[in-house]
Design goal:
By secondary structure, the protein is an alpha/beta fold. Helices cover 35% and strands 19% of the residues. It has 14 helices and 20 strands. The two termini are 23 Å apart. The chain binds ligand BES, manganese (II) ion and zinc ion.
Length: 496
């Protein structure tokens, strides 16, 4: 998908489809105004007839108009309510879905002329690219009858008012990088669990490292045993597929600058282990590596954007399977930190692989650590599918991540992480148990992790509710790549 920027003359622009926003009853954007004048009132007549409808995201496709050179015009309604982030994205989505079913090779999109309250032109431009790419994503389905490639290959964007094409061009490229990272995350998540194995994640990291000039190291089971990653290894014990510990380093910052560390949960399939999950929807536990996938996608985007930061990705990855060698409820293991853990439920495995990765993070002397994990079903109950759960041992970091989620539309919402929640994790047989009771399950999981993150600023994103969709639309969403990219872009000081 190609994007280019061009200030157009709406009446004299040759295009397969010219996309124009309409705000009925309010003033027309520059492009709409020109179309209206050049078509000697046809536009107004159609609007008066009520052909467009007054709801946000309603569309009217006009097959050619006298006085206009574009082959078609697509009108997109902003709606009666004031425009906001979601309504703007809905317009881009509606446009994309309609055009995807038409034999167009190119479109010229003037939705960027709209003003979204509280947002600037750079935001509008980025959201058009991201939302369009998100809508056009297709699952790489394994089939003997592959769908034909879409004909629509290029999009010409009319730059937002007051934004020169020179300033806008790098913004579009950055948005493309974020979309590329998001697509990678979705592809990995959507792969079936017999394909997306720990080894596949390791190979993906290695090939990313080659393409994007990152250092990649993968620890095998022996190396993990030598280090003492007893918690991670306990989860891997039931599977014939060997665990992998992926370390990926992007060095875009000053050589001595302390890195930011991203940690992603990479359970390529979560059966629950001996504490076996019930059968319904168990297939969705192939998405239990979406934290890892989002960290890899973010690394790809960061490298393509060439952000002036040092970023380290740590990905503990394995399967959680029952079997003759599997860990039992009641087993006690020693984590890399030295702290011992009584594993009361083998289905609380995410925290076990993460705790060793979080301890490993210490050796990078990080400025901060963010982990991303499909950690608890309780988080889906608490926040639904709208926001990721956000917990941190640092107020500033939590606020930064929440703000990045807000701007990017990939939202996270805070939950408390008070000392009080530690109580339930007490064990008579080890330093801690791996589960507390049912109440506050998302918070007690994070409280468990917090015992391994005392030496640095840390935040935790529970993405159990947002990483994938169920039902007819089943598939990975690519969240929270946008949030993480926005956070890192802000950190790099390249706001906009
Ligand atoms: N991967 C699951 C969490 C999950 C479940 C995410 C359903 C999305 C949908 C995680 O490993 C898990 O099984 N967590 C348990 C923890 C419990 C045993 C304390 C859970 O949430 O039920
Ligand atoms: Mn589990
Ligand atoms: Zn899991």
């Amino acid at each position: 998908m190609e994007f280019s920027l061009k200030v157009i003359r709406p009446a004299h622009t040759k295009s397969d489809c010219l996309v124009i926003p309409i705000t009925q009853g309010r003033c027309l954007t520059p492009a709409a105004l020109v179309v209206e004048q050049s078509s000697s009132g046809t536009l107004q007549r159609l609007l008066k007839q009520g052909d467009l409808g007054k709801e946000n995201g309603k569309l009217l496709l006009i097959p050619g108009l006298e006085g206009i050179e574009a082959k078609r015009i697509l009108l997109v309604e902003t709606g009666a309510d004031p425009l906001n982030d979601n309504r703007f994205r809905a317009m881009v989505r509606a446009m994309t879905q309609t055009l995807d079913n038409l034999p167009v090779k190119e479109i010229t999109c003037a939705l960027g002329e709209l003003e979204v309250p509280g947002r600037d032109g750079a935001w509008v431009l980025e959201q058009i690219v991201l939302t369009l790419r998100e809508t056009r994503y297709r699952i790489p389905k394994e089939t003997i009858d592959p769908a034909p490639l879409p004909s629509w290959k290029s999009t010409i964007l009319v730059p937002p008012v007051g934004l020169s094409t020179k300033i806008a061009e790098p913004l579009v490229e950055r948005a493309q990088a974020i979309a590329n990272g998001t697509d990678l995350t979705r592809d990995l998540g959507n792969l079936p669990p017999n394909r997306c194995t720990p080894q596949h994640l390791a190979e993906t990291a290695q090939s990313l490292g080659k393409t994007w000039d990152c250092k990649v190291k993968v620890l095998d089971r022996d190396a993990m045993e030598k280090l003492g990653m007893g918690a991670l290894l306990a989860v891997a014990a039931g599977s014939h597929r060997p665990p992998q510990f992926i370390i990926m380093e992007y060095a875009g910052g000053k050589s001595k600058a302390r890195p930011l560390v991203l940690v992603g949960k990479g359970i390529t399939f979560d059966t629950g282990g001996i504490s076996l999950k019930p059968a319904p929807e168990m297939d969705e536990m192939k998405f239990d590596m979406c934290g890892a996938a989002s960290v890899l996608g973010t690394m790809r985007a960061v490298a393509e954007m060439k952000l002036p930061l040092n970023v380290v990705a740590l990905i503990p990855t394995c399967e959680n399977m029952p079997g003759g060698g599997a860990t039992r409820p009641g087993d006690v293991v020693r984590s890399l930190s030295g702290q011992t853990i009584e594993i009361l439920n083998t289905d609380a495995e995410g925290r076990l692989i993460l705790c060793d990765a979080l301890t490993y993070a210490e050796r990078f002397d990080p400025t901060l650590v963010v982990d991303v994990a499909t950690l608890t079903g309780a988080c889906v109950i608490a926040l639904g599918h709208e926001a990721a759960g956000l917990m941190a041992n640092d107020d500033g970091l939590r606020a930064e991540l929440q703000a990045a989620g807000d701007v990017s539309g990939d939202r996270a919402w805070p939950l408390p992480l008070w000392e009080d929640y530690q109580e339930g994790l007490k064990s008579n047989f080890a330093d801690m148990a791996n589960i507390a009771g049912r109440p506050g399950g998302t918070i007690t999981a994070a409280s468990f992790l917090s015992r391994f993150t005392k030496r640095y600023r840390w935040a935790h994103l529970d993405i159990a509710g947002v990483a994938w969709k169920s039902g007819k639309e089943k598939g990975a969403t690519g969240r929270p790549v946008r949030l993480l990219c926005r956070f890192l872009m802000d950190r790099a000081g390249s706001k906009g």
